[in-house]
Design a protein that fits this description.
- The structure holds 3 protein chains of 3 kinds.
- Chain A is mainly alpha-helical.
- In chain A, strands 1-2 form a two-stranded antiparallel sheet.
- In chain A, α1 packs across α9 and α6 packs across α8.
- In chain A, 57% of the residues are buried.
- By secondary structure, chain B is of the alpha/beta class.
- Chain B has one domain: P-loop containing nucleotide triphosphate hydrolases (Rossmann fold, 3-Layer(aba) Sandwich).
- Helix content of chain B is 32%, strand content 27%.
- In chain B, a hairpin with a 2-residue loop joins β1 and β2.
- Chain C is built from 14 helices and 2 strands; from the N terminus they run ααααααβααααβαααα.
- In chain C, strands 1-2 form a two-stranded antiparallel ribbon.
- The longest helix of chain C has 27 residues.
- Classes of the chains: A mainly alpha, B alpha/beta, C mainly alpha.
- Chains in contact: A-B, A-C.
- The interface between A and C is large, with 48 and 47 residues.
């Protein structure tokens, strides 16, 4: 195995891991705090990508597009939280799964209506190659990894150093108790949901230049993202980080060895882990089903 | 007559299809210690939870100093000065003692921890320990200490001395006495000797109903027994 | 005798009406409804009785479809045997993944099934392309031999066959509902711990229910294969994963005729809307959200109690008259 190939495969895997990670954090937080499965996060991912396409094509600046993607996804998430999820927090998991799934496919339909079904290309903000340890690697992929790393730091600081973040961590443990202290948990839910949506939008915006933007992109990446959260366990940020790194590398290095393996290997790993620990690597065992 | 700190009238509560509280009424005067006793399953915790806003009653009235509590979200009730301290000594284990208190301060906008440390000096030493590593007694101190932030007018405390060593129970007894100088306390307890020594009034509950209302002062555990 | 009629009349009426619809509705529509409703009833049963939603039903549909397709393409020409082969594939597939899947929490279950569907799609499209001919699909319409009595290669005869199969499937599910097993399924959904304390095994009940539901789904896949005369990876595409879920909710979860009503509504909606709007998926998604927010009873779920009251009012009026005489 060529070491140069291995290195660029490794970087590729890191950039995939970054995209998966940004999406999975949202899902994990939403589950941990609000006990909902928010499949509509995949919609915000697609929205982020499409806004990046539109704004970058119009303005010529891809980063502006990504910013727009994040902003619009966050806003959309806010609206969905306010009008849909607020009514269903008390219900069981299956309920939120089905409802958010409806939002996802409805939203995909809207995207098709506005942008059509033809896949769209998004220009990479920089096509420079950078020399890392003797291998030429695309600068953009490194930037994606760097941004994801910054986001992880940001989330860490938010959850550990700010009072709202601490309230969210407390809420993940016992949300009733947090409410009993006199803290407005409704607002906590909204904040968390919007953060999740914005990050999914960021994932979409960053991923867009690397692939073609098409209406079903959310559904296509759905399986991978969920493999990541299932392996890492819903509700654990650390678990999500580790499992996205694992899945990213498996997909990347796997596709170098034997292409079909790239797809199946995460699935096999997921099944193995679930066999041993039905709640995922770091997942919490929930009393309510 | 001065307004009561807490008044519950004809409260009926059900979990889904099964009714657990039947026409419960009780009253707590300001600065009074009222204890609620009864066997497991009598409905004591359900009663506190309903007052605090965690359960929606089928019918009845709950007012505090004239303000209506029914239909409000729990955090609203807490902000009105009615603090609920649940049983099982649940603290936020992943957060430190300091952070647990910070959450209490954030909720009540009361950043003065002096009274908390007056009641429980030990908490000052434990500030940087993760709450998950505290002993049962220390957790209870943290919960009650945190609940005193914001100068509540009513504290609903569920089984505070369960599983605690006698020395800590004595300490808590002192604390309750001090607390009642500024707030009304409703304490659910199984420890009858403690109840008899601090309560101004005792409600005995059985099968979801108030079986008896007993005046404190010269009460003995044997007096409560028949109603449990 | 009376009891037998009482037991059967609902099913016979429902499919009798559908069969009568043959007179003024297009044959393809009715065939589609028959097959699709069989596809859905498995999903509805899992959700309504056992409490699990699966986003991966296309995987089991593919087991059945490809099982049948392989038989007809490589081995033989008898469509009945082909269908049997497809059902067997589905059964085996469900038995393999079942023991792992049913142990999971409800959300993991849904997602693991979705991952399975994606994997199966990928396998059929790329990995096994040698055998499955990838995106081009397997075509075997001409391979289907004529069979005596009912030539199910022909649409009109297929319709009769499918109706009989559907009646059989419905009878099976009604029977399950009426037995102890049906009660067990509900019990395991409502209160796992209690069920265990009573001495039953949650795992066993769920596994059996899972295998039955997904074998039914595979049966639908086999029927599709014979009806269309070809199979391609499209049947298990990620986008198609929504169909059984939407239809289940639309019709009313856990009711016997919900899947049938839901399928009719959904297929009709799709056929009509797609003539005017290229983009009817938009509506599907929002209809789903709307139903969930409005009480999740679905079409048949809301209509059924109302109809019951209508009929029982009639009955009690009769018995009142009887009593007075």
């Amino acid at each position: 195995m060529d070491s140069q190939l291995l290195l660029s495969g490794f970087i590729f895997g890191l950039s995939m891991a970054s995209v998966y990670f940004l999406m999975s954090i949202g899902l994990s937080l939403c589950f941990g705090l609000m006990r909902i499965i928010s499949l509509d996060q995949l919609l915000y991912y697609a929205v982020g990508a499409y806004l990046t396409y539109t704004v970058s094509t119009a303005s010529g600046n891809v980063w502006l597009g990504v910013l727009a993607g994040v902003a619009i996804s966050g806003t959309l998430a806010l609206l969905v939280e306010r009008f849909v999820f607020r009514r269903i927090y008390e219900r069981e998991l299956t309920f939120s799964m089905i409802t958010s799934f409806g939002i996802l496919i409805g939203g995909v339909g809207v995207i098709k209506a506005i942008w059509g079904v033809v896949p769209r290309p998004v220009r990479m903000p920089t096509s420079d190659l950078i020399n890392v340890l003797g291998t030429e690697v695309p600068l953009y992929r490194l930037l994606v990894v760097a941004i994801a790393g910054l986001v992880y730091l940001g989330i860490w600081v938010f959850l550990n150093k700010t009072i709202i973040g601490k309230a969210i961590r407390a809420g993940i443990e016992d949300v009733e108790h947090v409410e009993g202290l006199g803290i407005n948990v409704s607002r906590l839910f909204t904040i968390t949901f919007v953060i999740a949506g914005a990050m999914s939008g960021l994932a979409g915006g960053l991923h867009a230049p690397l692939i073609m933007v098409d209406p079903n992109m959310g559904l296509e990446v759905l399986a991978f993202v969920f493999m990541v959260v299932i392996i890492g366990g819903l509700g654990s940020i650390k678990g999500t980080l580790i499992s996205s790194l694992i899945v990213g590398q498996v997909v990347s290095i796997g596709s170098l060895i034997y292409a079909p393996l790239a797809m199946m290997a995460p699935f096999a790993i997921m099944l193995l882990i679930l066999l041993v620990k039905p709640t995922g690597l770091y997942g919490s065992t929930m009393v309510k089903k | 007559m001065s307004e009561s700190s807490l008044m519950v009238s004809n409260l009926n509560v059900a979990y889904g299809e099964s009714k657990v509280l039947f026409d419960v009424s009780f009253e707590v005067a300001p600065k009074q210690i009222v204890c609620c006793v009864g066997r497991n399953g009598a409905g004591k915790t359900t009663l506190l939870k309903s007052v605090a806003g965690f359960l929606k009653p089928l019918s009845g009235e709950v007012t505090a100093g004239g303000d209506n509590l029914l239909g409000r979200r729990p955090y609203d009730v807490a902000r009105m000065g009615i603090k609920y301290v649940p049983q099982d000594k649940k603290v936020f284990s992943d957060l430190t003692v300091r952070e647990n208190l910070e959450l209490g301060s954030y909720a009540t906008k009361d950043y003065n921890w002096d009274t908390v440390f007056e009641f429980f000096p030990k908490l000052k030493i434990l500030l940087d320990r993760k709450a998950g590593f505290l002993s049962g007694g220390e957790r209870q101190m943290l919960m009650i200490g945190r609940a005193t932030l914001g100068k509540p007018r009513v504290m609903l405390i569920d089984e505070p001395t369960e599983g605690l060593a006698p020395s800590i129970v004595t300490h808590l007894k002192q604390v309750f006495g001090e607390l009642s100088k500024s707030a009304a306390l409703v304490i659910v307890e199984q420890n009858l000797p403690l109840v008899c020594s601090i309560a101004h009034k005792v409600y005995a509950m059985r099968d979801g109903r108030i079986a008896a209302e007993l005046q404190g002062g010269a009460l003995k555990p044997a007096d409560c027994e028949p109603y449990l | 005798m009376v009891n037998a009629i009482k037991w059967w009349w609902g099913i016979l009426l429902a499919f009798g009406l559908l069969a009568a619809g043959r007179l003024f509705l297009p044959l393809p529509f009715i065939n589609e409804v028959l097959i699709f409703s069989i596809y859905t009833i498995g999903c509805s049963f899992l959700l309504g009785r056992v409490g699990f939603i699966s986003f991966g039903q296309p995987a089991y549909l593919a087991f059945g479809a490809y099982g049948t397709a392989f038989y007809l393409f490589y081995f033989g020409t008898n469509p009945y045997l082909a269908i049997l082969a497809g059902v067997a594939c589905g059964f085996i597939g469900a038995c393999i993944v079942g023991p792992l899947f049913v142990r999971l929490r409800s959300d993991y279950f849904a997602l693991v099934n979705l991952a399975l569907a994606v994997i199966v799609f990928y396998m059929m499209q790329k990995v096994l392309a040698e055998y499955t001919k990838g995106d081009n699909g397997l075509w075997f319409l001409t391979n289907i031999a004529s069979t005596p009595i009912l030539n199910i290669g022909k649409s009109s005869d297929f319709f009769i066959f499918a109706t009989l199969v559907a009646i059989g499937v419905w009878a099976l599910y009604k029977y399950l509902d009426d037995t102890l097993f049906g009660a067990c399924c509900l019990a395991t959904k409502i209160n796992e711990a209690k069920f265990q304390f009573l001495g039953y095994s949650n795992f066993k009940v769920r596994l059996i229910a899972f295998v039955i539901a997904n074998t039914t789904t595979a049966l639908a896949g086999s029927l599709y294969a014979v009806y269309l005369g070809s199979v391609s990876p499209e049947v298990t595409a990620a986008a198609r994963t929504a169909d059984p879920v939407v239809v289940t909710i639309l019709g009313g979860v856990g009711t016997l005729f919900g899947p049938l009503v839901g399928t009719i509504a959904y297929t009709a909606l799709r056929d009509v809307l797609s003539k005017f709007i290229g983009n009817w998926e938009l509506f599907v998604g929002f209809i789903l959200v709307f139903i969930m927010l409005a009480g999740e009873k679905g079409l048949w779920g809301s209509a059924a109690p109302w109809l019951e009251r209508l009929f029982s009012r009639g009955k009690s009026a009769d018995s009142k008259a009887e009593g007075q005489r």
